[in-house]
Sequence to fold (467 residues):
Amino acid sequence: MNINSKKISILDCTLREGEQAKNILFSLEEKIYIANLLKSYGVNQIEIGHPGISEEERLICQQICESISEAEFLVHARALVKDIIAAHSTGARWVGIWVSCNEIALENKFTNKTLVWIFEQVESAIRLAKTLGMNVRLTIEDASRTVEKTIFEIVSVALKAGADRISLADTVGAWSPHACHAIVKSVVEQFSCEVEVHLHNDLGLAMANAVAAMDAGATIIDTSVLGIGERAGICDLFSVTTYLNKFHEQCYDFSLTKKLSNAIERIGCFSAEPHHPLVGKNVFTHVAKYHVKATEKNVEAYQFLDPALFSQTISFSPKNLERKSTQRINNSLQVKQPFVKGASELLYHRDGIGTRWVCMDNRIDPRSSLYVIERIFDKEDQSYQPHVDTHAHHCDSVFVFMGDSENGVGLTAKVTFGEGETAETQLVHSPASVFIPAGVKHTYEYVKGNGRFLNIVLASNYNDSLV
Fold:
């Protein structure tokens, strides 16, 4: 169903807006890796940074442009001569000049300055960029709280100075879909220019506003991987492109969804929510018995999207839980008892050598979000056989090896990441800790010595955490 004949372009802001999210700061190598994935995914333009803020940032932007061919890059800039010169020196073809021009900005950012002064700054910056041979996008920051008259005035100034397109930014996520549609439609009709939108998700309306903007005539939508950005972030790349695929018949390489998602999760030290659209581990899982029965008969009964498109699989998890008189929201101090249990209760495991203690999971304390076991190796066994097959988790996990001798020495094990020809194996001598990122296939086996092995998994149920 093609509801709009216009081609919609994606400008991905992960490498610039994404760095405004907590805990996100990309290295040069990470930016190049992600930019290559975004290019292959099919985004039309990649915003890579703000070269005017430091020499380090300028060099990073320049190296990205030099490292990746046949990609359309845009760099950020204030309406300042030094920012425009820095932007041009990177080799990027586009510069995105941004400016605030509402009452809040005049009171808090441009003390004792007038709108006329702001307009002059914008005009000078655009003319300089055009003289240097760059394409220019002018972003009206906080357009959602700027009166229409002022928006029209700044757009007119920008277009006369040579701007190639206008971006309307809902910087604080204040637009409703109705308001977003109205202002985009007004600008498109008044100026017949290409309009881009940058939509923040503070009210959870970024995606709805993006659809409203497209219907109003916007042809470029700003996105980021997993929607990362300032505060609640912006439009999620995967949701917007899937929408465009389904309703505008536009094509993207969705097989790269997991790679992009995993990269951002790894760099940001977080996991996507299990219900995050398209990439969450539960979004293609059917639980209600009635749904499971119908979907097993015909997958379309309760599913609109093909999980294989996003490197996901459909799964069924009928709910057979009994309601218990537990209080999982109770924050009182409760001391629980670990218990001994063989490893054969786990998928990919057999009991093996040593005594295995379950220290924490949702059986010990229903409030737990962790799974912790400790295996005690208290006697050497030369006939020992490996008992853990290669597996991976949806979440991060940790191995800790501690020997019984002084300073934790005395225990040797073997840890393997990956499988087959690409597997990486190391002998591990205690004391030692191994971090295992989500999605990484791994295994371990006892080699010799006495001591303790600790396994911590960031999930309350081990088997449910498995990929």
Observations:
- DSSP finds twelve helices and 19 strands in the chain.
- Residues 84 and 128 are 7 Å apart (CA to CA).
